[in-house]
Amino acid sequence: MKPIDVAIVGAGAAGVAAGRHLAASGLDVLLIEATDRIGGRAHTAFHDGLHFDLGCGWLHSADRNGWASLAPQLGFHLDRTTPPWGVQFRDLGFPAADQRAARAAFARFEQRLREAPPGSDRASDLLDASDRWTPYLEALSTYINGTELEQLSIRDYLAYADAETGVNWRVTEGYGSLVAAAAQDVPVALSTAITGIDASGHTLRLTSVRGEIVAARVIVTVPTDVLASGAIRLPPRASDHIDAAGALPLGLADKIIFKLSDCEGFEPDTQLLGNPSLKRTASYHLRPFGRPLIEGFVGGEAAREFEADGDAFAAFARDELAGLFGSGIRSRLEPIAQTRWGRQPFARGSYSHALPGHAEARAILASDVDGRLFFAGEACSTQDFSTAHGALQTGFDAARAVLNSLKT
């Protein structure tokens, strides 16, 4: 069997980026995906003439985001509408004075993270239990990081915060659609789960559900929870990478999409926090792009709880929205989509965070093994993790490293 030049395991943002770069360089490349679609945790879904992103939806740090540069080249349109985050629609359940106080509490907390980080590197150690906004801070962490502050490395969090530019745009046609379109010139094998990589010979041999694939180089881009689980048997020399993946678990953030039967009283692209006094609450984007939709968002322990009960998220969101808009809103809400990223066997979560004391694991995960086995994905980025543009950049980096290795 003649080996291909490069096999790329995982057709998410990182795999697509690596595949584009290597294919354009003239190499024989195969993008191998375990599921039946391209995009990974970027996924634009469609329902009754409407589309919406079930995975990543915002181009964070858009002024330096590689996807923002690529979108126009592929015929996609960027929407630069300012995100409504932090401004409560009509101050419902969250008076303006309380909004200011909550934002001030977040600023004080982040200042403590910067000025007085504890030796534990654990963000929750700097919470003030007497502060009325501590549940609000915990809720924000589940949205931003997908996990509670107890599981969050301060050094890792600040690396992202210091690099983030605050510019956030969207793709009108969907972020997931953009990522999928970027793979149009790359050979792809879908529904082909890789279960092992053997590096004992001159070439690398990949075991898949469809047979063996032989390659000179391999780039692995699957999520950290998949790597840490042992779902793919890696060579013994990759044991440090498996340990690093375990220190970079995926947090969980899930969405529920409601279709509105009547948009009266809902202004486009506005935002609501369900209950700012509780950690267990959801955030709601009202009428994204002016569409007749409400996008609910919940993270951390609450998301895991809702994944265990198929109807719990919809019931919870209806209750929160009815508490803000009145019981009449219930009959206007039709749930049309819901994510359960933690229960997707080839994802097992949403985006990575470093456990306290393990921020250095990202650099370890991003290193190569013997110049033949390479790694990419959002978890490999030391400052843009948890984002599709972080994944994109690590895919490009891995592709360049592969090209350099082939020259030696």
From TrEMBL:
Reaction(s) the record says it catalyses: L-tryptophan + O2 = indole-3-acetamide + CO2 + H2O
Domain Amine oxidase intervals: 14-83, 109-403
GO molecular function terms listed in the Swiss-Prot or TrEMBL record: tryptophan 2-monooxygenase activity
Gene3D superfamilies listed in its UniProt record: FAD/NAD(P)-binding domain (3.50.50.60)
One protein family per Pfam: Amino_oxidase
Domain of life: Bacteria
EC numbers on record: 1.13.12.3
InterPro entries: Amino_oxidase (IPR002937), FAD/NAD-bd_sf (IPR036188), Flavin_monoamine_oxidase (IPR050281)
Coiled-coil blocks: none
Key words, A-Z: Auxin biosynthesis
Pathway(s) where this gene product acts: Plant hormone metabolism; auxin biosynthesis
PANTHER family for this protein: FLAVIN MONOAMINE OXIDASE (PTHR10742), LYSINE-SPECIFIC HISTONE DEMETHYLASE 2 (PTHR10742:SF410)
Name of the featured protein: Tryptophan 2-monooxygenase
Organism, scientific name: Bosea psychrotolerans
Lineage: Bacteria, Pseudomonadati, Pseudomonadota, Alphaproteobacteria, Hyphomicrobiales
